[in-house]
Amino acid sequence: MSVSGGHYVPRNFDPTLMSVSCRVFFQAHKWPPPTRNLLVQKRYHSSNLGKVLGPRRAIVYKERGNPHDVLYATTNTKPVELEGGQILVKFLMSAINPADLNVIEGVYPKKPELTKDFDLVNGDVYMAGNEGVAQVIAVGESAMSNGVSKNLRVSVGDWVLIDKPQMGTWTNWKVVQSTDIIRVPRRDSDSKITEPMAATMMVNPLTAIGLLSDINRIQDSHFVLQNGANSA
Predict the structure, then answer these.
(1) Are 224 and 218 in contact (CB under 8 A)?
(2) What are the strands of the beta sheet with 159-162, ordered from one edge?
(3) Helix, strand, coil abundance in the chain, percent, nearest 5
(4) Cβ proximity of 155 and 136 under 8 Å
(5) What are phi and psi of 196, to 5 degrees?
(6) Which of 20, 22, 195, 196 is the most buried (most CB within 10 A)?
């Protein structure tokens, strides 16, 4: 995973306010002085469900258009309670795919859903981002009893991927339904699955597998040509 000139990075980011994992996306860029706080650092205020990670912060947009013009950062301080069947996750790393920019521009076939009243000033907004890896912080009782998608149960500390398209991953944390996540099968220690690997696991690898196995079955005598710029 890399950040190149072909990928868009929103203006007015302050990397010092981001977690180490988030800064991977922005360390190659020089930034102007910030005009507002963006992503919250790792900090715990209490053990009270949704309030454990502080205010919600995200990169959002109100109208579709040029990402350079329409993207902005916002903070939501409304209290959030964890209900049955829901899971509180903290994002460790979120990818920037070219398709994310197409969604923001309004030219991508799959359209995102509005996040209701997330922006305390502008109301309903679209939350950017489609791919990323998050860590489970809290699990609702019914989510724990019913399990999650594909009958994989999750526990606090597990890594999970978002299974619902265009759900909005350019954020520090969010509450999701248990059916909208997939647990990453990794060991707590000595795991070969890193944050960058998990954060980019849902889009490009699955596309490659489909191209090589379902659409065109690769034989021993075949050659596969891959260029040097392959998305996130």
Answers:
(1) yes
(2) 173-177, 86-94, 132-139, 159-162, 181-183
(3) 25, 20, 55
(4) yes
(5) -60, -40
(6) 22
Beta strand 173-177 with 86-94 is antiparallel
What is the number of other CB atoms lying within 10 angstroms of the CB of residue 12?
A: 14
Can 72 be counted among the known catalytic residues? no
Q: Which residues contact 144 (CB under 8 A, 6 or more apart)?
A: 153, 154
Give the model confidence (pLDDT) of 27-86 as tens digits: 433 333 333 333 333 333 334 544 578 899 999 999 999 999 999 999 998 888 888 888
The reported pLDDT for the residue numbered 213 is 81
When pLDDT is cut at 50, 70 and 90, the band that residue 174 belongs to is very high
Helix (H) or strand (E) holding 21, with range, is helix 20-23
Q: Strands (DSSP E) along the chain, which ranges?
A: 56-61, 72-76, 86-94, 115-119, 123-127, 132-139, 159-162, 173-177, 181-183
- The residue from 44, 61, 72, 108 that is catalytic is 108
Question: 56, 118 in Cβ contact below 8 A?
Answer: yes
In 3-state terms, what secondary structure has residue 159?
Answer: strand
